[in-house]
Write a structure and sequence with these properties.
By secondary structure, this protein is α+β, with helices and mostly antiparallel strands. It contains ten helices and five strands. It is globular and about 50 Å long. This is ANTAR domain-containing protein.
């Protein structure tokens, strides 16, 4: 991608993320824009986001592929891996060679290598001292994310975090918890809808999600509402 075009799309992404400061935005749409933008604009092949629920447990909320989802679910199940370390420390964690992961990260390592990923960077979603989740970037090749791409990814994550837990939400912890729990609940409905579309159309889960997003964009309806209609059998794709 030419540098000028890339810069333009980065600016457009920031504008889209900044729109979340307006009342009525859809958190899941916001986070999907974030991971898709990282995949398309940065030197990374896949991306995903983990958010903490009201009890502090991480859950997968957005991903660019089923492969990403598998890798992150393995980390959650084992409670070990770059994402977990990033969330607990509030600092970015880089794995330039996943095959050289610590012994305690074996489940993450095996899942990542099996899905074709060789390196990874986990970036905290953090506002001041509050870390609410992680942005996780996976690459097929070895090595670290370049400094410019790393800075851009962190900036994307920072703007998204502000959109989720802005100043008013920070003053009311209950509001923060409700917003995050709402995003997690929405993702459950989306996963159910993916299963329905996959089954009825005989397509894989990635294609099912693309179909749901296409209907969401075409009808200018939040993706969570499209998913709910599918699960409730009020809409068929």
């Amino acid at each position: 991608m030419p540098e000028t075009m890339r810069d333009t799309r980065v600016v457009q992404t920031f504008a889209k993320l900044a729109d979340t400061l307006v009342v009525g935005y859809d958190v899941v749409d916001l986070l999907q824009v974030l991971v898709d933008s990282c995949r398309d604009l940065l030197d990374t092949d896949a991306a995903g986001i983990l958010l903490a629920d009201a009890t502090g447990e991480l859950e997968l909320v957005a991903s660019t592929s089923e492969a990403t989802r598998i890798v992150e679910m393995m980390q959650l199940g084992a409670e070990a891996g770059p994402c977990i370390e990033c969330y607990r420390s509030g600092r970015a964690v880089t794995m330039p060679d996943i095959s050289a992961s610590p012994a305690g990260w074996a489940r993450f390592r095996d899942a990542a290598l099996e899905q074709g990923f060789a390196s990874m960077t986990a970036i905290p979603l953090r506002l001041r001292e509050t870390t609410i989740g992680t942005l996780n970037l996976l690459r097929a090749g070895l090595g670290e994310l370049g400094p410019d791409d790393h800075a851009t990814a962190q900036a994307f994550a920072d703007v998204a975090t502000i959109g989720i837990v802005h100043e008013r939400a920070l003053r009311e912890s209950l509001v923060v918890q409700e917003q995050l729990q709402g995003a997690l609940n929405s993702r459950i409905v989306i996963e159910q809808a993916k299963g329905v579309v996959s089954y009825t159309n005989q397509v894989d889960m990635d294609e099912a999600f693309r179909m749901i997003r296409h209907r969401s964009k075409a009808s200018q309806t939040p993706i969570t509402e499209i998913a709910r209609q599918i699960v409730e059998l009020r809409l068929q794709l």
